[in-house]
## 1
Amino acid sequence: QVQLVESGGGLVQPGGSLRLSCAASGFTFSSYAIRWYRQAPGKERELVASVTSAGGTTTYADSVKGRFTISRDNAKNSVYLQMNSLKPEDTAVYYCNVELVGLMNKRNYWGQGTQVTVSS
């Protein structure tokens, strides 16, 4: 069974840093791109960052460019999101996501999320 488990969230002051982790299992991790999303109360889910299967290419939302870094360790079936210079607007539940492709369909899998709160 596919499983994604996020960790590393917490309460941090503006300007601080957090490192989120996503541990994956139940699929061939090294074959798939992984994405980080976030969702704040009352707002749409936002794609924050993505990384290709081998980790060679990354993308970021404009709102986090220069502050966040996505990476992965395929030997550990894990993906990370290093978040620096955090702002109150970064407060959200952060989710990792994978889209698995089958013969006739695509299916997205999500973790339970980890809360990030940026506040003084």
## 2
Amino acid sequence: QVELVESGGGSVQAGGSLRLSCAASGRTFSMYTMGWFRQAPGKEREYVARFWWSSGSTDHADSVKGRFTISRANAKNTVYLQMTGLKPEDTAVYYCEYREYGGGVYWGQGTQVTVSA
């Protein structure tokens, strides 16, 4: 029902910046949130940030607070994750999440972010 497509991943040196984008297509609803998670090799998937479309509220994990910013794009149902001050420990596959309030959860395919020292 909902397809999520991430883009913007790549390789960058420590201290660099990247901007990830996630576009949701298909049937979307009024009450939903979109967010970002990441998963490094050998680790569990980790929450990064979330954006509530109904209220415009945002939330960021402590590990990325002050460096990453989730925001809406001009395009409908699209969110960004602006990443600055990247560290090697940020290396992971970043996944976009679409969550319907009281409903389903959808995931994108993920986009690789690699930060070299």
## 3
Amino acid sequence: QVQLVESGGGLVQAGDSLRLSCAASGRTVGSGAMAWFRQAPGKEREFVAAISRIPTIPYYADSVRGRFTISRDNAKNTVYLQVNSLKPEDTAVYYCAASDVNIYGAGSIRSSLYNYWGQGTQVTVSS
């Protein structure tokens, strides 16, 4: 069994920042890429950012590039998403995902490549 637990979401104002965390546990966690997806009300789940394990190569959706930063601590099996300059359109449930494959780059956006998913953490940005 693999468990992913997100934390760090909250209610903030436009322009504020948050750091989301995703802690992974399980006997086979940590060999591949990790990523963040988000889903706003009434919309499909969309890719946000991903990072490979070794080397740590990040990849971002165009909508967040330059504002969000993904990082990981392999020793702690934890991935982070620093979200800066938040906009109301960033409001969504943010989901952590992990893959058994060390994918990176544009191919990282495919949700089908991720084997494990967390339950999500809510980020709400007011104007």
